[in-house]
Specification:
Elements lengths: L4 H16 L10 H11 L3 E2 L2 E5 L2 E6 L1 E6 L2 E6 L11 E2 L4 H14 L5 E7 L10 E4 L12 H6 L3 H15 L11 E6 L3
Parallel strand pairs: 5-7
Antiparallel strand pairs: 1-4, 2-3, 3-6, 4-5, 7-9, 8-9
């Protein structure tokens, strides 16, 4: 358990290489972003869960405890201005990590609700609570077949889209996701 900012900053040297090995990771799941978010926007009490398997980092669930709407809430670090805050878990360790999270949360008596926003539809945290629809990532629905739509667009837009498509081919796969999920878990107390 990481409960102070200094130790959280130090954990970045191990956390960052670990997170980079786990697809699909977004910039908002990376320790560099989460540490900056905490430094400038964080408040309350850190509750970052770090999980190990044979001494090696196997997962990180970056949380903090704070008062919100009259309740004591556990929130994901990065909430509010980030997309896809799924935690970094080694795939083979995920079932054990989920069990450990449940065990840990059941022992804490100082929280009322977990309101975990900006999760992907396939988040490993889905096993912990109730899914609630969240704000979707931006997208534009098309009423026409794409070819007809493109034919009606201005020449400059088509050129810019062609360039963006070429850049996207070189981009990581997480850029293609389109929706987020939100989890709510109430304290058993």
């Amino acid at each position: 358990m990481i409960t102070d900012s200094g130790r959280l900053r130090e954990s970045g040297t191990e956390w960052s290489p670990f997170a980079r090995k786990l697809p699909p990771e977004t910039p908002f799941q990376m320790p560099e972003w989460l540490l900056l978010w905490w430094k400038h926007l964080g408040g309350g009490e850190l509750r970052v869960m770090a999980f190990r398997e044979n001494g090696d980092l196997a997962g990180v669930l970056p949380l903090f405890l704070h008062q919100w709407d009259g309740r004591r809430q556990l929130t994901l670090i990065g909430s509010g201005i980030s997309d896809y805050l799924d935690p970094s878990f080694a795939l083979e360790c995920t079932p054990h990590i989920i069990d450990r999270i449940l065990e840990e949360l059941s022992q804490w008596s100082d929280w009322d609700i977990c309101d975990w926003q900006d999760l992907s539809p396939d988040t490993p945290l889905a096993a912990l609570g109730t899914r609630v629809k969240d704000s979707p990532c931006s997208f534009i629905p098309l009423d026409l077949p794409f070819e007809e739509y493109m034919a009606s667009r201005p020449k400059d837009l088509k050129r810019n889209l062609r360039r963006s498509k070429e850049r996207r081919k070189r981009s990581p796969p997480w850029l293609s996701r389109s929706r987020t999920t939100r989890m709510r878990i109430s304290s058993p107390r």
